[in-house]
Amino acid sequence: MSDVFELGSEHEQVVFAHDPGSGLKAIIAIHSTALGPALGGTRFHPYASTADALRDVLNLSRGMSYKAALAGLDLGGGKAVIIGDPATAKSEPLLRAYGRQVQALGGRYYTACDVGTFSVDMDDIARECDFVTGRTVAHGGAGDSSVLTAYGVFQGMRAAAQVAWGTTSLAGRTVGIAGVGKVGSHLARHLVEDGATVIVTDVHAPAVERLRDELPTIQVVADEAALVASALDIYAPCALGDALTDEVVEVLSAKIVCGAANNQLAHPGIEKALEERGILYAPDYCVNAGGLIQVADELEGFSFERAQQRATGIFDTTLRVFELAAADGVPPAIAADRLAERRMREVGRLRGMWLPQH
User: Fold this and answer.
1) Known catalytic membership, residue 90
2) Helix, strand or coil for residue 8?
3) Could you say which residues bind NAD(+) here (predicted)?
4) How many domains would you assign to the chain?
5) Binding site membership for NAD(+): which residues?
6) CATH code at 39?
C-alpha cells in the first residue's frame, strides 16, 4: 500500500476504527471542514482489501466536500466505510461500536446511510452517537434519502436536456438506467411519468422484477455492456463508481450522461473523451446531491417540502455548471470542480478548520 499520508494528502483526518468484540473494522475519512462539519454516509461493503477500502473512502469523502459546496450547504465532506458483508456481518453491537467511534470525533463528522446501510441502522448508531442523520421517520428523521437523490438526478437530467435539445421534457427520449436499487427505481418512476422510454439492468434480479411489476413498460437488458450498446438518448449510471471507462465512452450512443452513481469517471481525462464524442456529462456530485440535501435538512428538524424545494435547485446548479463550462471552454466536470473549489476557498477562508462548539 502507498503511504497513507500521500494517499490522503488532501484530507484533514483519517481514522481507523476497530472493535474486535463486534468485528467492527471501519475507516472514517474527513476531507474538509472548511464550510462546516463533515457529512457523508457510511458504506458497508465486503472490500477485497483494506487498501481498496481506504482508496474508496478517500475518494468518496473528497466527493462529499465538493457535493456539499456545490449544493450551497454549510457542510464539509466526510465518508466512512465498514469492511464486511452487511448480509452476514451487520449487527446491533457492531453498529453501536461504530456509533461510539463517530461520537469520539465530537461532531466533526456526521454520518448517514450509504450502500449497505439503511435508516434503521442509523437508529442503532444513534443509540451511542449524537451525530447521525438519515434516521427513520419514527425517530424524527428524513427516512430514505434515495427519494430526493433520484428527484435531483431527474432535475439535472432536465437541465441537460435543455442544453442538448432546447427542452426540459424527456418525453419520447430513451433513457438507460444501470442499477435500479433505491435511487434507480425512483428515477425510473420519474422518467416513465414524464413519457420517456426506460431500459434498465441490474446485477440483482429481484430489483428488476419488482420494478417491472410496477412499471410494465420498462425494457430489461442482461447487463451493463448490453445497456451501453443500446440506442440511448441518455445514459444514467446508478450503481457503483467507475461506470465511465474508455471502452464505455467509445461505444456509447447517448447524447447525455446523467446518473446517481458517485465517482463515475474511471480516470482523469474521461471527461475530455466524453466532450470529444459530443456527449454532455452532468457531473455526478452536482446532480446526485438531493440525498445530501435531504439528510442535511434533518439537522434543522426535517421538512420534506423544504428539502424538496432545495433539491429542485439542482436544475439551476446544473445549468450554471454547463454555462461556466461553455464560458471557460472546459468540460462540465472541471467547471463543477471550479465552482465548488471557489466556494470552499472564499467561504472557508472566513472559517478555517471546523471545531466542535463548546
Assistant:
1) no
2) coil
3) 179-184
4) 2
5) 179-184
6) 3.40.50.10860
**245 shares its domain with 282:** yes
What pLDDT shows up at residue 354?
Answer: 75
Among the listed residues 79, 90, 255, 272, the single catalytic one is: 79
Nine-digit cell string for 299 = 439537522
List C-alpha distances in Å: 86 to 35, 112, 243: 32, 16, 23
Q: Domain check: are 34 and 118 in the same one?
A: yes
129 lies in the same domain as 167:
no
The set of cell numbers assigned to 276 is: 470529444
| Residues 189, 90 share a domain | no
pLDDT tens digits, one per residue of 41-61: 999 999 999 999 999 999 999
The pLDDT of residue 1 is 52
Residue 10 cell numbers, joined: 488532501
User: What is the reported pLDDT for 358?
Assistant: 54
Contact criterion met (CB below 8 Å) for 291 and 271: no
| Of 78, 82, 97, 19, residue with least CA distance to 50 | 82
346 occurs within a structural domain: no
Q: Give the per-residue pLDDT at 116.
A: 92
Contacts 24+ apart (CB under 8 A), 206-214: 207/180, 207/181, 208/180, 210/185, 211/180, 211/185, 214/189
**Side chain identity at 17, as an amino acid letter?**
A
User: Residue 103: which domain range?
Assistant: 4-67+75-139
Show the cell assigned to 205: 434480479
Cα distances (Å, whole numbers) of residue 235 to 26, 175, 282, 284, 352: 33, 6, 11, 12, 39
Low-confidence stretches of the chain (pLDDT beneath 50): none
